[in-house]
Structure formats: structure tokens, C-alpha cells
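Consortium newsletter contribution from the modelling node. Members have asked for a concrete example of what our holo predictions look like. Here is one, prepared for the zinc ion complex that several groups have been discussing at recent meetings.
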Amino acid sequence: MIDEYAKKLINVGELKITSGVLEMFGRRGILLPITSYQYLFEILFKIFGEKIFDILYECGFKHGKTSVIESREKFKITRREYLDNIIRAGNLMGLGEAKIISISDKKIIIRLTNSPMVEIFKKMGIKTKRPVDSFEEGIFSGIFSEIYRTKMSSKETKCVFLNDPYCEFIIERQK
Ligand SMILES: [Zn+2]
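And here is the predicted structure:
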């Protein structure tokens, strides 16, 4: 089964896999099994402990910000359409299925199911009472800070890792 959005991107040449190069929106990517990330996270966790979540947030922030900077000019569409596209692109990257639940200029609520991070941290068997999707948290902060042109904070308030039915993120304009 291939996602409808993926089919569309393949048709318009925005998703290509040729000669060992995978490209989406003209940006090269890598498809790795979750265990590869697990090994990386295990090493980071051994060295940095729970600081790994700050590291992931920071990486996510840069990822989100760069995604917007590098793709903004490609779309002559409304901000909402653009946001829907960037969220669908994230879903396509295997980052789970994100959905915008509500959106205003000050506050956005996003729900995420099938988070790969939850799976990775479960495989790692670490014990923590905090949500684990810091990478996505950072991504949303980066995306919305860049689109809204002001610092937008992001907080994961529910997480499947903590037995919530889904992961939920509140993104807010920073006071
Ligand atoms: Zn989560």
C-alpha cells in the first residue's frame, strides 16, 4: 500500500529513488531501520542520560525550521495548505501520523499516532516518567516558529509511552 500523497509526489517528481539516492522535495534522505536509531539513542542515553531529550528537541527544531526554509518557495498556496503538506511530508518520512486538531495564530494542537520514537524508547527499555517525543516536539517548534516568524514553544502533553491513547503537542506563541 502506498500513501496517496506519496503517489502524487512521485508523479510530479518530488519523490525520487535512483542510483542509491533518495530525494524528497529536492532534499536527500536516508531510510534506516528503527534499530539503527535505537543503537544511536542507546549510546547517547548512556553518555547523556535524560539530556538526550534536549538533544533530540534541538535536532528536531533545526529539522523543522530547515524543512520550511528549504521548501517554502516551492508552494504558491495558502499557509494552511502549506502546513497540511508539510505535516503529510512528515507522515511520509515515517515520523508517525500527525494531525492538526486546532489552529489559531496563538495556539496549535497536534495529535500524533504511530510515533516511531515511542517504539524506539520502548525497545531501549528505559524507565522515564516523561513523554519521549522530544524530536517531534522540536520539529513543531521549528516549523511554526519559521512559518509564524516568531518564537513558538512546543510541549508534548500526552504520550503513548506514558500509556495515553495518542501523543499530543501544544504549540504556543512564546510570551
Ligand atoms: Zn509521545
